[in-house]
Every structure is written in structure tokens, then in C-alpha cells.
Amino acid sequence: MAEYTFIIPAHNEEKRIGRTLRSLDRFFGDSINVLVVDNGSKDPSVEVYKEWKKEHKNFNYIIFPEALGKGGAVLEGLKIALKDNTKYIGYIDADDAFHLESVKNMLVFLDRYDVVMASKWKDKGFMRVDEPFVRKISSRAWNLLVRLLFGLDVRDTQAGAKFFRREALEKIDFDFICKNFSFDVELLYKLKQNKAKMLEMFIPTFHMEGSTFKMVYVWPMLLNILKLRFGK
Questions:
Q1: Partners of 77 in the beta sheet?
Q2: CA dist 211 → 2, 3, 101, 113, 174 (Å)
Q3: Each residue of 154-205: pLDDT tens digit?
Q4: pLDDT in the model for residue 90
Q5: Which of the residues 24, 46, 54, 61 could staple to 36 if both were Cys, CB 3.0 to 4.6 A apart?
Q6: What's the CA gap between 167 and 101, in Å, rounded?
Q7: What tens digit of pLDDT does each residue of 19-53 get?
């Protein structure tokens, strides 16, 4: 049985999800289970899932007709994965943006840490991060706000590759306020409150066109974390 379950939240990822699944298969093979949580896709993504499942027993997918948001999709995936006996559970973005050899090296540290998370910003200066300028500005402003509100000593809460010991996830409640892109903050905050031991590691990434994140999402993200910090 695979020791790891990788959850992939997906929304209209027909053009990218096949490449991501091939990359994961090449680097990890049957050592991981892969669960795609599709939330509200209107494109033919499901056809990609069906074809991949025919040849890969370690792959599964679940379809939610309504849009759950990225965080909502991850949350549903975590609930499903915790019902299995997988020792380690994590999630990774659908865009194949991470250097997977480095991700593989991250997993080694789960024998010493409850949480191991990828970071674009750990020990890196502003000009060395491979993102558009405006997005880097908004990223640093968001990170400063999160640090001030929640005391999270994390340089990059939003990087889409995080892995957990199942015991750490079993200690937190799954009543989440944040179901959109702010989900990562609430998850890390809950883990921090339960004294989870965390490791943030720089992982090389590639800026991928076609990101599902839009700047219009910033306002709902802000409202959610304020609700989280100061109450509903």
C-alpha cells in the first residue's frame, strides 16, 4: 500500500491535469495514491480522469458539480484521505509548477515534522522569485498581514504543495471558515494551535500560464481571514 496520498484540487483543468498526472507518475509511480477533487468544472476534465484511471490503480477522482473553491476541494479531499490508512497526506496544485524531484526530497522530512510545506519565498529575495511583479507585491502584502494576524512564522502560506502526518490532521477540527484561496492560512493556523511541528522549504517552481487565481479573489480572502481572526 502506498504511504502517501496526494490530493489535487481541480477546476477546469482539462489542458493541464494530464501533464500533471504524467509528471507525478514519472517521479513517484505507485509509491503514492493520487486523488483529484474536481469542483464545478465545466470543461471535459472528467474524460481525462476516466482515461487515466483505466491504467492507474493508484488514481481516483471525485466530482462535485458545484464550485467548492480551491480550499473547499482540498478540505473534501483531506476528509476522504483520512478515512484510508495512508500514513502521509498532502495536496499539490494541478498546474505541474513544482520541481517534483525537490518535492520528493521534501517527503523525507515527514519522519521529523508534522507538516512539510513548499515555499517560493523561503530564503529568497524579491527579485529571485519567478512570478509577475504585481503578484509578488500582493504576495508580500498578504504574507505580512497573515504574520501580524496569526503569528505564523511562514514566508509563503499560499504555495500549493503541503504534506502532513495523518496524526497532525486528526487533531484539528474540520469546521472551516475559509473555503477559497485563504484555506491554507486557516489550515496552518489550526495546526499551529495544536502545536504541530512545521518545516518550510524552498522548492523551485515555474510560473505557469493559465493560473486559476485572479486578483478579484483577494477581497473575499481578506474577509475570510478577518472572520477567522476576529470571529464570525
A1: none
A2: 30, 30, 22, 30, 27
A3: 999 999 999 999 999 999 999 999 988 899 999 999 999 999 999 999 998 8
A4: 98
A5: 61
A6: 25
A7: 999 999 999 999 999 999 999 999 999 999 999 99
Domain positions in the chain: 4-230
How many C-beta atoms surround the C-beta of residue 43 within 10 A? 13
Contact 103, 32 (CB under 8 A): no
CA atoms within 13 A on the CB side of 159: 28
CATH superfamily of 4-230: Spore Coat Polysaccharide Biosynthesis Protein SpsA; Chain A (3.90.550.10)
Q: Give yes or no for a contact between 201 and 119, defined as CB atoms under 8 angstroms apart.
A: yes
- Radius of gyration for the chain, computed over Cα atoms and rounded to the nearest angstrom: 17
**In this structure, how many other beta carbons lie within 10 angstroms of the beta carbon of residue 145?**
16
Per residue, the 3-state secondary structure of 15-49, as one string, reads: HHHHHHHHHHHHHHHHHEEEEEEEECCCCCHHHHH
pLDDT per position as a tens digit, 51-82: 999 999 999 999 999 989 999 999 999 999 99
